[in-house]
Amino acid sequence: MSEVIRVGRRYTIVIPKFARRELGIKEGDLLLLRVEGQKIVLEPKRSNPFKVLEDVIGDVYSEDRDERVAEEWLKNASS
């Protein structure tokens, strides 16, 4: 499906509802823009969920390493 859209003030465009729904684009999402010949191509920039999880929780839990860190913290906290 295609639709004619207008370039607005400050060169803004509105992505039609059918395209937003089909591609799962939400307000605040990032899009990758590239020029191919005389075409403008927009693609949703999907994040890697494993990278997001790593950023949120940090390194994967390691019992040996993390217990040593906790023990050192407790020693220093009680001094």
Q: Structural class of the helix and strand makeup?
A: alpha+beta
Number of helices: 3
pLDDT average, as an integer? 87
Low-confidence stretches: none
Distance between the termini: 69 Å
**How are the strands ordered across the major sheet?**
1-2
* Shape type: rod-shaped
How many E-type strands? 2
Structure description:
The protein has helices spanning 17-23, 49-57, 63-77; strands at 31-36, 39-44. The chain is α+β, with helices and mostly antiparallel strands and 79 residues long. It has a domain at 9-44. A two-stranded antiparallel ribbon has the order 1-2. The longest helix has 15 residues, at 63-77. It is rod-shaped. The chain starts with 16 loop residues before the first helix and ends with a helix. The mean pLDDT is 87.
Question: SSE layout and pairings?
Answer:
Elements: H1 17-23, E1 31-36, E2 39-44, H2 49-57, H3 63-77
Antiparallel strand pairs: 1-2
